[in-house]
Amino acid sequence: MSDLDVLVILGTDHHHFDRLVGWLDDFLEQPGNESLRALAQVGDTAAPRRAEGVTIVPYDELQALMRRATAVVTHGGPATMLEVRRQGRKPLVVPRDPALGEHVDQHQQEFSRRMGKLGLVTLCEERGAFLDTLAAILKDPESQSVSEQENDRDRAQIAAAVATTGSIIDKLAAGHRRGKR
C-alpha cells in the first residue's frame, strides 16, 4: 500500500492554477475521501484546503513521491508528464487553460490531447471527469502503472508528440516575435 494516495504537481510556472487545486479540494471533501493522504506541489498557486501544499519539492524527493503515490495528477507540462511515466505511473493530466489565465498559450492543451489520444496519459479537462477518474484510479491503482517495457515501446510515439508540440511552440513564438516588431 502506498503511503501517499494523491500527488498533484502544478510545476513552477508563475501562473496560478486554482482550478485544479479546487478540483482536488472538491474530491477530498467527498464522503469517504476525508482520510486520503494528498500532497500538492503548487508553485505560486494557493495551497489546497484539504491536502498538504508545498511551493516546491526538491527533484529527488519529487521522483520518489511519483513512484510511491497511488495517483499522480499533473498539469500539462510535457516534461512533467514524461517524468511521471518514467517513474512508472501514467499521469492524470489537467492542462492549463490560457483562456482562464493559467498559461500564455495552448501548448499544454495541445500536447496533453495528443498524449491522451495515444493513450500515454489519462486526460481530464472537466471537473466531473476529473472527480470520477481520480476515484477510479484510487480503486484500481494498477490501471495507471507503466512498465519499463511500455515506456520503451511508447518512446517513438512520445518523441513524435514532443516534436509536434515543439513545432507548435515555434510557430507561436514566431508569431509573437512578429507582433512585437
Task: Explain what this protein looks like in three dimensions.
- The protein has helices at 18-28, 59-68, 78-86, 107-117, 127-139, 148-180; strands at residues 4-9, 38-41, 52-54, 69-74, 92-93, 122-123.
- It is of the alpha/beta class.
- The longest helix has 33 residues, at 148-180.
- The mean pLDDT is 89.
- The radius of gyration is 16 Å and the shape is globular.
- A six-stranded parallel sheet has the order 3-2-1-4-5-6, sandwiched between helices.
Please give a handful of descriptors for the protein shown:
six-stranded parallel sheet, 6 helices, 181 residues, alpha/beta, globular, 48% helix, Rossmann fold
Summarize the structure.
It is built from six helices and six strands. By secondary structure, it is α/β, with parallel strands linked by helices. It has a six-stranded parallel β-sheet with strand order 3-2-1-4-5-6, with helices on both faces.
List the secondary-structure elements in sequence, H or E. Answer: EHEEHEHEHEHH
Count the strands? 6
Separate helix tally: 6
Strand order of the largest sheet: 3-2-1-4-5-6
- What is the CATH superfamily classification? Glycogen Phosphorylase B
Question: At CATH's second level, what is the architecture?
Answer: 3-Layer(aba) Sandwich
Instruction: Supply the CATH class.
Output: Alpha Beta
Q: What is the overall pLDDT average? A: 89
**Structural class per helix/strand content?**
alpha/beta
Helix content: 40-55%
- How many domain units? 1
